[in-house]
Amino acid sequence: MKNTPTPHIGAQYGDIAETVIMAGDPLRVKFMAEKFLDNPVQFNNVRGMLGYTGTYHGKRVSVMGHGMGIPSIAIYTYELYHFYGVKTIIRVGSAGTIHKDLHIGDLAIAMGACTNSNYAAQYELPGTFAPIGDFDLVRGAAEACERLGYHYKVGNVYSSDVFYNENSHIDKWINMGVLAVEMEIAALYMNAARSGNRALGICTISDSILTGEATTAEERQNNFTHMMDVAFSLI
């Protein structure tokens, strides 16, 4: 296609599978390619944002990084949906829990994504858009967690544009029953909706905003495999 390669993805049309599992950290993507894919072939290294295509139990799938924050994931997922024929994107990432029943290592399946981002303003909607995940993917992820014995909750996450926030008002999100804070899923769900495609966000709890518990960068890169198991079960 004339739109590929894009300014951010060095692949040709056809190099990327219709299903892409994405992570913010490119090294987590490399880990997934080595652990889960048969015969992975690297299709991208532009800006160090690694991407690989291979097979999982005989089914073609790609894994790729999306960087940190809504602007970054918005660019990559827009290009994947619009220029590479991608139909399904599953984000596997980390999140900070703000729910008393979610702890380090548990999974948060994002049925919806609240946000303080202005990303939806581009659509000029006469109201507030509610970004939601694909129901079949949400249901499949919950069923996989039950089958595998992984502790999880399904609900709203909060996609924040700000990491170091001087006035987060996090208590207000807690009062609304939001599960966890992350930085990308709302834009992923909006891009999926606008392009008529599917998306799901699955997050491993990496820290607790309630207790101050936290994990290391190496633990987040290499040990958060339960969400990957769930994501690949949906292929």
Poorly predicted parts:
none
Helix and strand sequence: EHEEEHEEHEHEHEHH
Q: Quick one: overall form?
A: globular
Structural class: alpha/beta
Distance between the termini: 25 Å
Walk me through what this model shows:
With 235 residues, the chain is of the alpha/beta class. 30% of the residues lie in helices and 28% in strands. The chain has helices at 26-36, 70-83, 135-148, 170-175, 185-195, 217-222, 226-233; strands at 19-23, 38-44, 51-56, 59-65, 88-97, 107-115, 152-159, 180-182, 198-208. Strands 5-8-7-6-9 form a five-stranded mixed barrel, surrounded by four helices. Helix 2 packs parallel to helix 5 and helix 3 packs across helix 7 (226-233).
Comma- or semicolon-separated keywords:
single chain; 235 residues; alpha/beta; five-stranded mixed β-barrel; 30% helix; globular
Summarize the model shown:
The chain is α/β, with parallel strands linked by helices.
Would you spell out the secondary-structure blueprint of this structure?
Blueprint: E1 19-23, H1 26-36, E2 38-44, E3 51-56, E4 59-65, H2 70-83, E5 88-97, E6 107-115, H3 135-148, E7 152-159, H4 170-175, E8 180-182, H5 185-195, E9 198-208, H6 217-222, H7 226-233
Parallel strand pairs: 1-4, 1-5, 5-9, 6-7, 7-8
Antiparallel strand pairs: 2-3, 3-4, 5-8, 6-9
